[in-house]
Amino acid sequence: MAEVERGRRKVIHAVHEVNPEVSFVTDPALRAVENKLDEGIPLSKEDGVALLQTQDLHTLGRLAKREKERKSGNKVFYVLNRYINSTNVCYANCKFCSFAKAEKDGAAVRMGADEVFAKALETGPNFNQVHIVGGHDPRQLSLDYWLPLMRRFKEALPHAQLSLFTAAEIDYLARRHRLSYDDILVQLRDAGLDNINGGGAEIFSARFRKLVCPNKVDADNWLKVHEVAHRVGIASNATMLYGTVETLEERVEHLIALRESQERSPGFNAFIPLAFHPDGNELSHFGWTTGLDDIRMFATARLMLHNFDHIKAYWMIQGLKVCQVALQYGADDMDGTHGSTDEERIYHSAGTQSGQYVDDREFRRLIEEAGYVPVRRNSTYEEFAYDWQPEEALVGAR
Amino acid sequence: MALADLLDRAAAGGRLSYDEGVELYENAPLHDLGAAAQHRRMSLYPTNDVTYVIDTTINYTNVCNVHCTFCAFFRPEKHGEGYTMSHDDVLGRVRWAAEQGATQIMIQGGVNPELRLEWFERLFARVRIEFPEVDIHSLSVSEVVGLAHVEDMPTRDVLVRLKEAGMKSLPGAGAEILVERVRKRISARKVKPDAWLGVMREAQLLGMPTTATMMFGSIETKAERIAHLDAVRSLQDETGGFTAFIPWYYVPFKTPLRGKESTGLEYLRVLAISRLYLDNLPHLQASWLTPGLKMGQLALFYGCDDMGGTILEERVVHDAGSTNEATRKQLEELVIGAGFNPVIRDTYWNLRPQMALATAS
Q: Domain count of chain A?
């Protein structure tokens, strides 16, 4: 019976050793943040850094959830889309990248225009967005490739918005064709460009870019491309690649630069935090971001970016589980389904465990379970019934 | 009673009734539920320590006559893919694990009617003699009941003999959901809820501590999850023999039952309500193996004070399509990254500060 006593004593010991001094873990920095939010005062850099470090995850969540609901009420968005990497030929040599290949590399994939078009229609025409990004490919990244392809998409699939390129690719195109951002963006707009993807932002800090992506568009020009695009009537998104050499201050400065840009030339719809993936690149030693990093990043973005309508939790990046949890930490968008035969290669070459495709019914289940109403959208957040389909005549165009 | 009052009471360690548990679980906002659970956890263990055990699971046989529909691991008797390890094979795996610093060995498998009690007695005796430093935390209730059938003797007598052979404690597996309606659908041939609790009671009264698990996310309702917590809590009131509660969710890929995988939010809610409802259970374990390391870290903010085991070798969950693996270093880094101190423990929550942390080297 001594052993019974021992087992029992262990339990009683644990349960009665309650320390009445311990309160809910509360972070005074969040109280100050809450007051600012109530008064509509933009958060400072110091506030942002405090948010990224807080242990008070539940107060952080309450605040971020409240701001999300102020922006988008009870809606959480997703898009039926097609995702294509048209080329992985790239000579920018960014250190975080596992995707880029030299032209002569056996693993180089460069799709012809017909191939891209066919790929988009592989699983039928019922989608509201074509999302294409590629490398700085000296052959493919050219107006004579893209303008005809864009017009072809618009003619065959007027219901699908074109969400093409990142600012890095636009900058490359402009330099290649010796055109100003204004001139190139007007040409792209006239050919049907609806939205510029948010990639290529990485971390704006000059220190970071010099270390990690010296051959890519610099921060001023990244912002300028988006600001000009907004002025000529093209919408866009913004991203940040977190989890490598950047400091927390640099993350927050990045968010502040975005929010100032949005003041100067509004047109960003969503901010998308991109977690670094470590497989097969020169920054592998930084490893994976953690669940806590991810959640704090979503919440901090929601609270810092008062003039952004949407914070996106992209399932492919942080995983479906964390992205669903993010809906309680400020995110209001799960991005796109991708087509079931699409093959995303940027994050998959860097080791993501996410699949290639998420059924829209799965999005709806996850969103409803989080207590929100799932809303199907396109790139510019026009809403569609969940069972919306393009008309017969358009389907015939394939 | 208002949700806020229920949360305050539960956060202070007060008892929730079944109805109150259902009410909180179904209706409390996530952050309120999480904050209350975290408050309770920090009150119990104000030191910021998060423990884990270096362990291995040895699935000695996949032959099983219970045939649960949620399981992708077992093979029926006479199936070509069935296997049973030799004693030497098991001992080799124990040796390998002990060399990695394991202090806990979980020898668990199917309910294989070919294996007699004496097979286990000889195996455990060898482990005890050759590796006295490892604790044999082995066999689930189902296997004990299976042995009782084979030997035609009471389960208590089986436990007495296993204990004499060196088995020190039982993992809480096979509990699934301790509600008859659910078990009829997912594990019709497994022991009934009362029998599971009965064997646990016998073991605990014999001085063998046990854990308790819950497999959620198959076909049970939310209220049935609370009924499960209630059954565990009642037995704990009686015996005090449970060391920890370990909720994990059903992995539907490759199983006959199929269905949807549970979600990130559901996992966090289950953890929080478990911490609040089980006012008499000392520890709540994060089961990072199925939800992944990211969710395993977030669990530390929803009431968990323990990261479970390193599980150097495991086959049951992997066969159902789960791919997460963790090294000690990764586990410790997650704990440190969340602002806690990783501490190595043994099966019985004796801390082992003399064992070096993987992050220390």
A: 1
Cβ within 8 Å of B, A 340-359: 353
CATH number of the domain that residue A246 is part of: 3.20.20.70
197-236 in A: which are within 8 Å (CB) of B?
Answer: none
Per-residue pLDDT of A203-234, as tens digits, reads: 999 999 999 999 999 999 999 999 999 999 99
The pLDDT of residue B282: 97
Q: Nearest residue on chain A to B35, judged by CA atoms? A: A58
Min CA distance, B92 vs chain A (Å)? 31
Interface residue B101 vs chain A (CB under 8 A): no
Whole-number pLDDT of residue A303: 98
Q: Is residue A16 one of the residues assigned to a domain?
A: no
Distances (CA, A) of A12 to A365, B229, B300, B303: 42, 19, 23, 19
Contact between A149 and A116 (Cβ < 8 Å): yes
CB proximity B92 to A under 8 Å: no
Whether residues A22 and B282 touch (CB distance < 8 A) is answered with: no
Does residue B2 lie in a domain region? no
Q: For residue B360, what pLDDT is reported? A: 81
State the average pLDDT over residues B265-270: 97
Q: Assess if residue B24 is contained within a domain.
A: no
Distance from CA of B206 to the nearest CA of A (A): 7
Average pLDDT over residues B275-283: 98
Token reading at B200? 């646990």
Size of interface A-B (CB pairs under 8 A): 140
Residue contact B43–A22, C-beta within 8 A: yes
Ranges of chain A whose pLDDT falls below 50: 1-24, 393, 396-398
| Residue-wise pLDDT tens digits, A303-334 | 999 999 999 999 999 999 999 999 999 999 99
Boundaries of domain holding B317: 32-347
| Residue B299 reports pLDDT greater than 80 | yes
Residue B244 bridge partners (DSSP): B283
**Domain assignment of residue A10, yes or no:** no
Query: What count of other Cβ atoms lies within 10 Å of the Cβ of residue A169?
Result: 25
Q: Does A55 touch chain B (CB under 8 A)?
A: yes
Q: Identify the pLDDT of residue B72.
A: 87
Residue A261 falls inside a structural domain: yes
d(Cα B23, Cα A393) in Å, to the nearest integer?
52
Decide if B13 is inside a domain: no
Section B214-224 average pLDDT = 94
Nearest Cβ partner for A62 among B31, B266, B293: B31
In a domain, A15, yes or no: no
Nearest-by-Cβ selection for A8 from B206, B240, B338: B240
Specify the 3-state DSSP secondary structure of A7: helix
CA-based nearest residue in chain B for residue A288: B294
pLDDT digits (tens, 9 = 90+) for B124-167: 999 999 999 999 999 999 999 999 999 999 999 999 999 999 99
Q: Is residue B321 included in any domain, yes or no?
A: yes
Strands B55-58 and B341-345: unpaired
User: pTM for this structure?
Assistant: 0.92
Beta bridge partners of A81: A129
- Closest CB from B205, B206, B264 relative to A322: B264
Q: What is the mean pLDDT of residues B285-297?
A: 89
Interfacial A residues in 275-304 facing B (CB < 8 Å): 287-288, 290-295
CA distances from B327 to A31, A291, B34, B293, B304 (A): 38, 17, 27, 11, 19
- Quote the minimal CA–CA distance from A343 to chain B in Å: 21
- Per the rule left: phi > 0, alpha: psi between -120 and 50, beta: everything else, A221 is alpha
